[in-house]
Amino acid sequence: MNTSALGGACTVVVGCQWGDEGKGKVVDVLASDVDLIARYQGGANAGHTVHVGDQHIVLHQVPSGILHRDKRCLLGNGVVIDLAQFFDEVDHLAGRGVNPLGRIGVCTRAHVVFPYHMALDHAAEKAATAKIGTTGRGIGPAYESKTGRRGVRIADLLDTRRGEARVAQGIAWARDRLRQLGADPALAGTVGDAMAVAHRVPAVAADVGTEISAGLAAGKRVLLEGAQGTALDVDHGTYPFVTSSNTTAGAAAVGTGIGPTTIDSVVGVVKAYTTRVGNGPLPTAFDPPMDERVRQLGGEFGATTGRPRRCGWFDAVVVAYAARVNGLTGIALTKLDVLDTLPEIRIATGYRLGGRGGMPFPATASELERVEPVYETVPGWQTPTTEARRLRDLPRNARAYLDRLEELAGTPIAMISVGTRRSQVIREP
Length: 429
Ligand code: GDP
Ligand code: IMO
Ligand code: MG
Fold this sequence. Notes:
alpha/beta, Adenylosuccinate Synthetase, Chain A, domain 3, Adenylosuccinate Synthetase, subunit A, domain 2, 2 domains, ten-stranded mixed beta sheet, three-stranded mixed beta sheet, globular, binds guanosine-5'-diphosphate, binds 6-O-phosphoryl inosine monophosphate, binds magnesium ion
């Protein structure tokens, strides 16, 4: 364990598996030490859970630092924002006594997800033979609009006429596309629907890159919060069973408008086992009874869609790959407590394919579908870890498990999470 792996003024927090690693919990813990928290990609497909006291909140677009009442929370240019859901989230938080207005900013360069993107997401999934199993939040179509240079940005909505004109073009394009997909073009909705909450945009519009840079220059500390995970990255993940953005740490600079040399440390959030929601290969998947057992122990149901997550053993090939792709300086290991009752635990240390061992994480989903994990079995600890607050409080077998994961990932563990609450964390030897 090396707690200094989180050092410096600007830290990225990035998922290292298939999402849902516990990024919300880790960001909430680390947020006490910073001034600004910014999301850099993804949108309402994310579901980041934060538990504080008796409050349990799932954040989809608002950064996970929001429950600290003195922190500024930003959505960078790389995020795609569903404004209706965003303001619902803001109002819901206000209703629970956490008022985000005044300390939340949305980048003027960020693209907007409209109801027609959601309609296109549903229609594309319905028409597809190999379905991705998306969250249905319009994420893929919104990023397609952005790279297709048809997108509408927050800045466009600051001028109602320009905003309406761009939205009308987007709707016309979506109607054609819906027809091609065999869906009803009326599902694209109207300009009025799309612009329903546009009048609230001026209250939150911000220049996120300038704000973060000025904050850092003034001695403030910053956390850049990733969504999804490395294996869902559009370039580095299990393509095509991925999300439509770069989720990895390099995207944190691009998606907030700061230079890459500004980033001091990269914390990879890693679950003590593996889960995946949506379609695509999962080499270390459990057999059905064990899958059900761990799903219940870990509460592995999607925070956004409620879908059951598939569960499997720790896959060190994925995590070592994530350590490289993200340039990790440290790992935040989560959900160790979920393994507390298991008599034996397996770790996939490598892959074999066609009789050949030592396979790296493959470039194609079809190869990943065919790899056979090589397992090592270690004894469980069968003792509760939820009250441990220092590494030395953990049972010996739990420490040995962590040492092995650290060795396989080639990255020091900087913090360990042993429960859902903010206080259930180990940050000292
Ligand atoms: P995220 O998308 O990476 O923020 O993760 P999610 O919130 O979707 O899923 C993680 C789930 O695990 C949430 O229900 C968290 O409350 C929960 N969680 C986070 N850390 C721990 C932990 O150390 N132990 C347990 N038992 N649950 C945790
Ligand atoms: P957080 O931030 C887990 C998955 C979907 C699907 C694929 C593409 O909570 O970790 P999309 O709607 O993005 O086009 O879906 O990606 N997916 C996630 N899986 N956690 C997430 O976010 C996810 N966001 C998207 O299930 O397989
Ligand atoms: Mg999640």
